[in-house]
Every structure is written in C-alpha cells, then in structure tokens.
Amino acid sequence: MRPNLTGTMEPLPAFDLFGVTVTAIDDLTAAEAILTGKIQGCVHFANTHVMSESTRDPSLRSALQAGTVLPDGMPLVWAARRSGLKALRRRAAGPEVMKNAIDKSEGRQVSHFLLGTNQETLSLLRTEILERWPTASIAGSLAPKYGDFSDADVLAYANAAKSSGADLVWLGLSSPRQDILAHRLARHTSQTLLCVGAAFDFIAGTKATCPALLQRFGLEWLFRLATEPRRLFRRYATTIPRFIRLYLKEVS
C-alpha cells in the first residue's frame, strides 16, 4: 500500500496552458510521485491533441482542471521551458510512467488494476508485465464496453476496481474518452486513476513503439501517423495546427 503522506509537501513545478495547470515533471519523477502518494486522484497525460480538444470540449476541460495533468507531448515540455521551467528536459509519457511505476512498485506492496482496450490485449499486457516484472501485483483487469458509458457502467467499473484492492488503476483508452471516464470514476473511488492511452498496446506489443530519437524531437505524431494513417490523419491535421494557433495567441 502506498503511504498516506501528511504535513506540508513541497509543490511540484507547474505552469498554465489554455487555462489548465500542467505539472512540469518527467516520467521518472512522475512515477515516484505517484508511488509515494504525492500525486493522487485522476492523472492525465496531455499532448497537443488533448490540450487542443480541452479548449472546445467542456467535459474534457473539467476533467483536466480537476486532476493532475502531465506533459506527455514534447510541445508541452517546450512550453514549460519557455515559461521558465528550464529543468524539464523529458516528457512524462504515459507508457514510460506506467513501466517505471510498475518497475518501482516491486517490493512496495503496490497493486495495479488494468482498465481498457480489449480482452485479448489485456491478456497479452498482463503476460508481458509479469514476464518483465515477475513480482508485480496485478489485482485485476477489465475491458470496458464500446460506445458511451452510462452511470451504471461507471459504477460497475468503479466497484470492480475497488473490490480488487488495487492501489493504482490504469486506463488504456483513447482521449478524451479515458479522461472523462476517470473523472466520473473518481466520484466513486479514491484510487489513483491514470489515463495512459495507448500504453497498453505499446507494452503488450500490439502496436509499434516510436524510436527514441523521434520522440526526443517531438516527432512521435509523425511515426504514429505513418503506422495508423486512417485513424490519425484527421486528428493530427486539425489538432496540431489548432494547438500552434492557440499557443501563439496565448504567448503573444
């Protein structure tokens, strides 16, 4: 079980972007903060798509403002540095935070619940996690239904996560679907809810991982577009220009 921290804690560095507070830490720092309880509640991993959509989707905006937002995309790292937070050099990518947290949780009696994607991928993910980290504690997993979630669905998912006894609940869905679901789940559970998107697929091996060099230069979107053009072309064609336009307006 993660410790229940009390007393005064030094706040994590943060900056404001489009009316949302972004916590400016990298993957290693984020994993440690999650495991020690310094970061709790809903945790969102934001890139240009998430931040752009938050300016026109009130439900997503409310979810981000109520939780902790981490810089999943390099443009957010660059925005943090431009705001004066020069120490931030790496992003807090969802897949890396998840891997680091599972790795660091061995021996800490921290258990994990996997909520997302489909049953086949969940099975592959569980197998891969236990091969890499044999003593990792996977308390349970659940593949949610497709389509919109009713209040009954949300309550059922929250009850499944709570009854598992897991400390950390990882959500592997698309954004903003996962972010809004986590926000709704938080009404029924005090567990830490982490919206890591395609991390399930990357760790399970069902999707190719972007080379580190492309990630460093903020070109993961180009790699993912090349691997999933039909699904991602419209997203990137609209949200990247919109993010740039909004950001230039904000800093002008």
Mind telling me the C-alpha Rg? Answer: 17 Å
Largest sheet: 6 strands, parallel
The shape is globular
N to C succession of SSEs: EEHEHHEHHEHEHEHEHHHH
The number of strands is 8
Task: Give the N-to-C terminal Cα separation.
Answer: 46 Å
- Spatial sequence of strands, sheet with the most strands: 4-3-8-7-5-6
Kindly give the count of domains: 1
Share of helical residues: 40-55%
Q: Which structural class should the secondary elements be placed in?
A: alpha/beta
| Beta-strand share of residues | 15-25%
Arithmetic mean pLDDT: 92
Question: What would you say this structure looks like, in words?
Answer:
- The protein starts with 13 loop residues before the first strand and ends with a helix.
- Helix content is 50%, strand content 15%.
- It is globular.
- It has one domain.
- 43% of the residues are buried.
- It is built from twelve helices and eight strands.
- The chain has helices at 27-35, 48-54, 58-66, 74-82, 94-105, 119-132, 151-164, 177-185, 199-204, 212-216, 220-227, 229-251; strands at residues 14-17, 20-23, 42-46, 68-71, 111-116, 137-142, 168-172, 192-195.
- The strands form two sheets. The chain has a six-stranded parallel β-sheet, with helices on both faces. It has a two-stranded antiparallel ribbon with strand order 1-2.
- It has 252 residues and is an alpha/beta fold.
